[in-house]
């Protein structure tokens, strides 16, 4: 203190005053800062109900789960209804086919930054949505094969069982229909297949009422071969039904085809397509060749992936020719005991049909096929 007193006495009076003022200002500033800090600690936090706090905690947990899920690209395949493939198969094959995509991870990161946890509507396993894409037909055209193949794609989630909502269960409402769908994450496509939609007149208007932007996929096959396949399936269930030849004609002598028989009526594709074009533009309908789907599935699946706006992940390297079945099957994923082909109900041996009956059927379908080619802009080669 004596040293300070001697030091201050040696300084001019004006300098001493300035030093004292600076020290006082510093002390006042430190005191004010301390006071404000203490005040903030003692203030009560915003009042929230227990429900709001629970929701906030839940949102944050959901955000963390979603971020982990998308960055690691481990998509869960839950909610399938009686699909032919076991869940373990899909999980293993999806992980095998899933590419490392840094750009996708960066895009997810930017999305999360723009949407803080409190604004996310996802749950840990995603949400159930109405389908954005529907396989509408045709029966015995290859719809099951297409569904089994596309379900391997990590960004496609599909119902295994046919919902038949727009033709049989429409009175149950969209909420019932949506609850049948698997849970999806942002960027994934929800899909279902019900081949009878294509020939059910009300289905087009009902799907349009649900979503005018729905993407429709139609698998078509040579109508003569399709009719025989349809009959073969019916014969396997009821061995005592009349012969194919007797069902084809109203009168065998006159050669008049019985178009009231469902197996024949389904194959008049142009007639049914006219009804769908009243509601959906041609650009929202993808036509898949049932023959090429069996002989060159990677090509047709490439078209499907492009149509759905998805990256081409499923390619020809994921298929092999099964000599027993007589068509291409999916290769086994890592860790799976064996490859997968469609079930025993697919690829049945057709009964021998009188060649004259087949010739008459081809003559019957030819004008309808030509019109279908013109409508779609594709020649499927059924009349070559």
Keywords:
elongated; alpha/beta; two-stranded antiparallel sheet; 384 residues
What does this structure look like?
It is a single chain. By secondary structure, the chain is of the alpha/beta class. The chain has 15 helices and eleven strands. The protein has helices at residues 2-10, 13-42, 50-72, 87-97, 102-114, 143-150, 173-180, 201-210, 223-237, 244-248, 262-265, 269-276, 290-295, 297-307, 355-376, and strands spanning 127-128, 133-137, 156-158, 183-184, 189-193, 215-220, 249-251, 256-257, 285-289, 319-322, 327-330. It has a five-stranded parallel sheet. Strands 1-4 form a two-stranded antiparallel ribbon. Strand 10 and strand 11 (327-330) form a beta hairpin. The longest helix is centred in the first third of the chain and has 30 residues, at 13-42. It starts with a helix and ends in an 8-residue tail after the last helix. Mean pLDDT is 79; it is low at 41-48, 71-89 and 99-123.
Q: Characterize the largest beta sheet: strand count, sense, and whether it forms a barrel.
A: 5 strands, parallel
| End-to-end CA span | 115 Å
Mean pLDDT: 79
* H and E order: HHHHHEEHEHEEHEHHEEHHEHHEEH
Q: What would you report as the Rg, rounded to the nearest angstrom?
A: 34 Å
Strand content: 5-15%
Enumerate how many helices there are, as a single number. Answer: 15
The shape is: elongated
**Helix/strand class:** alpha/beta
| Stretches with pLDDT under 50, minimum 5 residues | 41-48, 71-89, 99-123
Kindly state the percentage of residues in helix: 40-55%
How many strand elements? 11
Task: Write out the strand line-up for the largest beta sheet, numbering strands in chain order.
Answer: 3-5-2-6-9
